[in-house]
Amino acid sequence: MTQTWKISSYSRITNQKIISDGKVLWERNPDESVSDFLKTIYRNSEANYPKFFKMDLLCKAAFLAVEFISKKVQIRETNTALVFSNRGASWASDQKHAETIYNQESGASPAVFVYTLPNIALGEISIRHQLFSENLFLIFEKFSSENLVNYTEQILSENKADKVLAGWVEADENNLDVLIYLVENEGTTNHTIESIKNLYH
């Protein structure tokens, strides 16, 4: 009998708001920058994780999406894999790093350089929640629920993890487009291509 995997929790962050399991938690003030909006979410999350302020926008967005899931479902020190994706990789930090290289006065910034790989977001989340499982950051031309389902269920069916945090994370100064969801044995929604499309749209 084929295993039916479930989505037990999810977070969705857009330019307008953050949604956790169908509930709007906060809406963005029209005068608020993307960076300030993420800081507002962080303050309301009660995460108490000072390293957050050193992260780039991609890491901050992914960190916050997972933070709200972790308040509802136990993921700390569990065998939870990470399968994230986006289109731009770490483009926003890459561009910022390039600008510091060509700035003759300040030179390259190691603090920015750290975030010139998208999988650093996976590392930040793994450190936060003490995860030592499989992790993968995929680059797609556009959001692909089909690929996310395939990679996620392959990891679970091969018993490489008990749970998987999967989704899409795009974040820069002008755009927030994040969907992270947790797949495991229990939950109210079947883990299907259509159900993920519905969460995203």
What is the helix tally?
7
- The CATH topology assignment is Peroxisomal Thiolase, Chain A, domain 1
Instruction: List unreliable stretches of 5+ residues.
Output: 90-94, 112-117
Task: Sketch the topology as an H/E string, one letter per element.
Answer: EEEHHEHHHEHEEEH
The value of Rg in angstroms is 17 Å
Secondary-structure class: alpha+beta
Count of beta strands:
8
| Number of separate structural domains | 1
Descriptive keywords:
alpha+beta, Peroxisomal Thiolase, Chain A, domain 1, 8 strands, 36% helix, 26% strand, globular
If you had to describe this structure to a student in words, what would you say it looks like?
With 201 residues, the protein is α+β, with helices and mostly antiparallel strands. It has a single domain, classed as Peroxisomal Thiolase, Chain A, domain 1 (3-Layer(aba) Sandwich). The chain is 36% helix and 26% strand. The chain is built from 7 helices and 8 strands. Strands 1, 2, 3, 4, 5, 6, 7 and 8 form an 8-stranded mixed beta sheet that branches. A hairpin with a 2-residue loop joins strand 1 (6-14) and strand 2. Helix 2 packs parallel to helix 5 (120-129). The longest helix has 14 residues, at 57-70. The two termini are 31 Å apart. Mean pLDDT is 87; it is low at 90-94 and 112-117.
